[in-house]
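Please discuss these two lines.
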Amino acid sequence: MLDFIAGMIGGWLGASWSQRRELRRARARQAALLAGEPVRIPCAMRDLGAGQTQWRHGDLLLAAGRAWWTPPGMSSRKVTLGPAGLTVTGDRPVTAQEGWGLNPACRVLSVRLDGREMELAIPGHDLTTAAQVLPLATVAHPASGTA
């Protein structure tokens, strides 16, 4: 019984430490973007128009009013996200089925880019940083407490 209680306390401490670490990293990325430096936010993407159902993991690169998505280590295969031509059409949490391949703390944004339908999974703590470059102001984010 004592092992169970110690395990529960250890799990709770580890989870709270991890959440604080991710929040510190998100704040550091936001400060860097405000200082004019380019930032890299972990982000997954899938293109719905091509019938693709798998998420492709990579990074959302934000710099001076421009945004790209890149797969890891492949900066030559950038997908330009705008902000020109990008429209956010929806916002939802990660579903239980998607939680196996995505971080459940992410928000899934449905976007339309020049006629293409895509979804972006962005960590909830980084939505305010992404909103500085992408037009996310019209979407409410109840999980992260921002608008």
